[in-house]
Amino acid sequence: MLFVPAYWPFFKSGELRRFDYTAPDTPSFTSVFSYDKGSDSMLYNNYDSAGTWLNKWFYQYRPGFGVAEWRDDYPGNKKVV
């Protein structure tokens, strides 16, 4: 399942958006969305309910292909503020 905001791929500012997800059958987590200018991608970082960084995902729209996604789990140990 992709948690990509409806306004993407038009989201190209320095703005950060935070979304908190809760469901009865899965652990709660927080995603912080932003735009990564270097890769021209939608970037989001996921954090667990304690604010510990879990992983980073990049989503890039490629004409004729669609949305490409990849994950980066380095360096870790970040806290959401």
Task: Describe the protein in words.
The chain contains no helices and five strands. With 81 residues, the protein is mostly beta strands. The mean pLDDT is 77. It has a five-stranded antiparallel sheet, with no helix packed on it.
Strand order of the largest sheet: 1-2-3-4-5
For the biggest sheet, the summary is:
5 strands, antiparallel
Oligomer status: single chain
Terminal CA distance reads 25 Å
How many DSSP E strands? Answer: 5
Strand % is over 45%
Order of helices and strands: EEEEE
The amount of helix comes to: under 10%
Mean pLDDT: 77
Shape: globular
- The helix tally amounts to 0
Radius of gyration: 13 Å
Unreliable stretches: none
Helix-strand category: mainly beta
Ordered list of secondary-structure elements with their pairings:
Layout: E1 17-23, E2 26-36, E3 41-48, E4 53-62, E5 66-72
Antiparallel strand pairs: 1-2, 2-3, 3-4, 4-5
Please give a handful of descriptors for the protein shown.
81 residues; mainly beta; five-stranded antiparallel sheet; 5 strands; globular
In short:
The chain has strands at 17-23, 26-36, 41-48, 53-62, 66-72.
